[in-house]
Amino acid sequence: AQSVSQHNHHVILSEAASLELGCNYSYGGTVNLFWYVQYPGQHLQLLLKYFSGDPLVKGIKGFEAEFIKSKFSFNLRKPSVQWSDTAEYFCAVITRGTDKLIFGTGTRLQVFP
Amino acid sequence: NAGVTQTPKFQVLKTGQSMTLQCAQDMNHNSMYWYRQDPGMGLRLIYYSASEGTTDKGEVPNGYNVSRLNKREFSLRLESAAPSQTSVYFCASSETGQGYEQYFGPGTRLTVT
């Protein structure tokens, strides 16, 4: 069965540090990829998505992600985090031919001032 | 537009009690979903509905039933609640088709004692 792995379960950073959160998926076919964010006490919101084209995708709030097909990866990056980025981040994959979104287990990011 | 709304926000049940979680969307989406979110496990799909009148099982359907009442509404029913169903439940909706973004509701925090 298809799966999504997020290897960083809990990341702690100081403000202005750079961020990279890993995401790998297991499906070998055509996929669409997403990063969602869940701020404390809130519902999930879309950060960015990749469907096709340029593998470097830019999202909201200065986040970006790079799709590397050969590595089955879609890592999330931000050059300089802020305290307000404290949240849980979920990578998700949907495969062509289905409309089921498969989520990773999430990465909890804490940013300290 | 309200987007995706869910009721109730919080609920405490005793083992064996039943309840229905309500979800509605005003974006004219065809597809609707129910997820549960548990610590360290991300979001797991319970049931989904690709269109009015159709429902399909997701990853963790046992102990739940759903009804797609009309295009706007998709309810989740627990017939006989168990402590293992203590979780946060999210409803989502999307356009039907490949890779459309899912929009999430604010969630229902359910505790079964």
Give an overview in words.
- The complex is a heterodimer of chains A (113) and B (113).
- Chain A has strands spanning 4-5, 10-14, 19-21, 24-25, 31-38, 45-50, 56-58, 64-68, 73-78, 87-95, 101-103, 107-112.
- With 113 residues, chain A is mostly beta strands.
- In chain A, strand 7 (56-58) and strand 8 (64-68) form a beta hairpin.
- In chain A, the strands form three sheets. In chain A, strands 2, 5, 6, 10, 11 and 12 form a six-stranded mixed sheet that branches.
- Chain A contains no helices and twelve strands.
- With 113 residues, chain B is mainly β.
- In chain B, the strands form two sheets. In chain B, strands 2, 4, 5, 6, 9, 10 and 11 form a seven-stranded mixed sheet that branches. Chain B has a four-stranded antiparallel sheet with strand order 1-3-8-7, with no helix packed on it.
- In chain B, strand 7 (64-68) and strand 8 (74-78) form a beta hairpin.
- The radius of gyration of chain B is 13 Å and the shape is globular.
- The mean pLDDT of chain B is 93.
- The A-B interface holds A 6, 9, 32, 34, 36, 42-46, 49, 51, 90, 94, 96, 99-101, 103-106 and B 31, 33, 35, 40-45, 48, 50, 58, 90, 92, 94, 96-102, 104-107.
